Amino acid sequence: MKLTYAELSAVGPVRRRNEDFVRFWQSDDEQEHQARGALALVADGVGGHASGDVASRLAVETALRSFLEADPTAVPRDLLLRMFDDANRAVHDEGSRCGGVDRMATTMTVSLFRGHEVVVGHVGDSRTYLVSEHEIRQLTTDHTYVAMQVAMSLISKEEAKTSELRNVLTRSVGHNDTVEADLVRADLHPRDVVIQCTDGLHGYVADEELRDAVLRMTPGESCEHLVRLAERRGSHDNISVQVVRIESVPRAGSQRGSVASLASARSSRVDTTAE
After folding, report:
1. What is the CATH number of domain 2-269?
2. What is the DSSP letter of 45?
3. Which helix (H) or strand (E) holds 255?
4. How far apart are CA 190 and CA 147, in angstroms?
5. Less CB within 10 Å around the terminal CB: N or C of the chain?
6. Where are the beta strands (DSSP E) in 124-238?
């Protein structure tokens, strides 16, 4: 799979430090690239908890190390569950060593690009979107009390945007000694775009604005545009975004845009084109 990608993370206009952490990995070795695929990871340290910046970095770096140490032929589902288990254990253990009233925790969302598909592992309220043929769909489900209320028709989506509970998580990495991660897969086609972002962005930029930006700009330009847009609108959180444009896939997927939920299980700006 040939990809063009970019990422940008900013502290935002309100926060004093950046507790988001983003990484993108892809091997320069063609054989390893074909076997392992590419990986985009984003984490948002839980606000109000101890050392959110430490938690987000530790989760991402542990997940990436777990991925690279695993058998490259392992199926994506097993890889992602192992990554979340290892990251959760690392953050939970670090929080236990540090002590304190607040438990160290973070969100984490990981997209694995391999073959003709993306498989996403997800805990928290960062999001993964798929933009395809001028359509944008949110692949992940927010793990917040507000999202639960919307799902149960207790409040509307518009009411959710201003609810005092909109940032209260129902799941996070490291808060408990086990973690439950959602898994979802989607077929990819040339010119599709995958967006990952933290709530400091998606809480201030509409889905249609995300779609339009990645369709009319390069990944690097769209990252810059979207972060600055969230800043102008007074985002109260750190702002992070990753944009991955699909240039080619080794073979056609099944049905365009096919998305499937696999499981909910325990267990500075750069544009680069690589194949």
Report:
1. 3.60.40.10
2. B
3. none
4. 32
5. C
6. 127-132, 135-138, 181-187, 193-197
